[in-house]
Design brief:
two-stranded parallel sheet, 4 helices, alpha/beta, Leucine-rich repeat, LRR (right-handed beta-alpha superhelix)
Length: 200
């Protein structure tokens, strides 16, 4: 029954032009929104992209996402065995809009998150198999963050102080083989579930 409900929801979104601009799943629609974000892109609330379905490689500045002021959910995912994502990110500022609740990007290509990132309402940050060397500099406003997953980020060398993220409940660090240790603040935090693999 749930598949029927999902199909009906998709048909409703397809038939309602206003909803179709808010919830983007089709690769062509997403590429158009990212290229022409001033032409209706500000209405977008959710983008879910399987990057393997892109017809060709696509590059964009990070600030394009940051200017989507109503964006709440962003998910860019790919097959595990794919070498890299076809969606490439050019380093820039304002990647994470304040409205964002979920940020999921497999094989995230940047070495660090922009220093001006203050997604106050962000609940879940998933950057599995990323190129991150460090998460961020400074102390971003992440008071709502409950889950942080950087599994398989083999270039990650250090974690910042996480003591200010008082809502954090889950921390996934498996297969971060260059990570030399974890901040002492984690042991004093309220994290209920965390996993970590020491450097070999």
């Amino acid at each position: 029954m749930h598949k029927l409900v999902e199909q009906m929801a998709r048909e409703m979104i397809r038939d309602d032009s206003s909803l179709s601009r808010k919830f983007l799943r089709d690769p062509q629609d997403i590429c158009y929104a990212l290229t022409n974000f001033r032409d209706g892109g500000e209405q977008t609330e959710c983008m879910s992209l399987h990057s393997c379905n892109l017809a060709c490689a696509f590059s964009m500045k990070a600030s394009v996402v940051g200017h989507m002021h109503n964006l709440k959910f962003l998910k860019v995912y790919k097959h595990v065995d794919s070498r890299e994502s076809k969606l490439q990110l050019i380093p820039d500022q304002h990647l994470l809009p304040p409205s964002l609740r979920l940020f999921h990007w497999d094989a995230f290509p940047l070495r660090t998150l922009p220093s001006d990132a203050d997604p106050y309402f962000l609940v879940e940050l998933n950057l599995r198999h990323s190129d991150l060397e460090t998460l961020w500099s400074g102390t971003p406003m992440l008071e709502s963050l409950k889950r942080l997953d950087v599994t398989g980020s083999k270039h990650l060398k250090q974690l910042p102080d996480l003591s200010s993220i008082t809502s954090l409940e889950e921390l996934a660090l498996e297969h971060c083989t260059r990570l030399k240790g974890i901040p002492a603040s984690i042991g004093k935090s309220n994290i209920l579930d965390w996993s970590f693999q020491m450097q070999k």
